[in-house]
Amino acid sequence: MKTAAPELEGRLFITVSELAALLQLDPRTVRRGIEDGSIPAVRVGRSTRIPVPKVRALMGLDPAPVA
Fold first, then answer.
1. Residues 34-53: pLDDT tens digits?
2. For residue 41, which of 34, 56, 61, 63 is within the disulfide window of CB 3.0 to 4.6 Å?
3. 29 in a domain, yes or no?
4. Using the 8-state DSSP alphabet, how is residue 63 labeled?
5. For residues 19 and 13, what is the distance between their CA atoms, to the nearest angstrom?
6. Number of domains within the chain
7. Overall average pLDDT of the 4-33 stretch
């Protein structure tokens, strides 16, 4: 299996721009994925956050280690 992404360690959520940088995508592409439902996300006020467990699953990574 693939190893864990260090950028995701100990985090519950990441921003659209962080996910875009991690996946080497334009943030608009990430936002389109959120809008069409292919990337799960939650709104916190006016900002959008993506749950790290969902990101890890989308990337095919091992589940986050339990501390």
1. 999 999 999 989 999 999 99
2. 34
3. yes
4. P
5. 10
6. 1
7. 90
